Amino acid sequence: MLTILSIGASLCLLGVLMALYHAFFFSEASEEQALRLVVRNRVSLANPLPLSYQQKINQVAGVRESVIFQWFGGVYKDARDPQNFFARLAVEPDKLFTVYPEYVTAEEQRRAFQQERTACLVGRKLAGRLGFRLGDRIVLKGDIFPIDVELIVRGIYDSERDNENLFFHFDYLREAMGSERGDMVGTYVLIADSPDSVSRIAAEIDEMFRNSPLQTKSESERAFELSFLAFLGNVKLFLLSICAAVTFTILLVSGNTMAMSVRERVREVGILKTLGFSRGTVMGVMVAESVAISLIGGVLGLALAAGLCDLLRRSPATVADMNRLTLPPSVILLCLVVAALIGVISSLWPAWTASRRSIVEALRFTD
Length: 367
Prior knowledge:
By secondary structure, this protein is of the alpha+beta class. Helix content is 53%, strand content 16%. It has a nine-stranded mixed β-sheet. A hairpin with a 6-residue loop joins strand 6 and strand 7.
């Protein structure tokens, strides 16, 4: 039981790490994501772009619409509480639903958000977490921008992912800041007419501003999201290294257990041979026992991993959107294969050694 629990705990960690790796680097973009691009300053996100760029971007063939995305930041209540962290973005409300058609809200709420200057739109998950309701007043204290904004919740949107944002009017922010800083934009988000046009549009936009004082970097929405993970370092190497260390640890635990188990039952091996069991049969029984223990631990670990993935889906999004974090069939199958291989490898040498003992030697064994 202790061995099963040890393998289960290790496979749980392995399953969660592999699920994260799959979600970050192998999950396919949705239909909407495949059409969107993000245009930002080539130097960094901290460097804005002129507002005048938008008109030129819209003239590129294949661009259906573009919307301003200005990160406001700010502080909601107490910044020390991680529950109060969420994306606060100034946008053009009349264009937001064109670029993000997956954002679904009631028509009257959409109109109220678009028509009222101090209105804001919040995601369903965020509203549930912080208790936002229609008509609530929200005050965001500026940190990046030296102003405070007072907003009224006029709409709550639903989406399978990316539903922890707060959107308010860019014109409101621009008027409060004045023309000197209000004419600068953090990013533009575009929607293309087809997925095949995305790479071409990105290249044309970057080439358009190649000789400008403020050059652009255009990339798909998926690539833009992965760039945030790069802030943490080499995430791929980090995850793969931990997976390798966990697998090696499981192998040591299982190998030690099987070696002790075989050593304690050498006389039983002699009895089996006396009854006519061949070396191959004795060896197969021991290996099968080890594989069964590893697979039971693997199933237990995957059940725990599924529970942890569910907790991560419910937790606030920080670096990446976890709303769709699950254990895909490929990860489940790979974890079970790893468990089975660990069972085979850890028991192969002890079982082979025990099966080669002669009957007399096995029956005389007293250690």
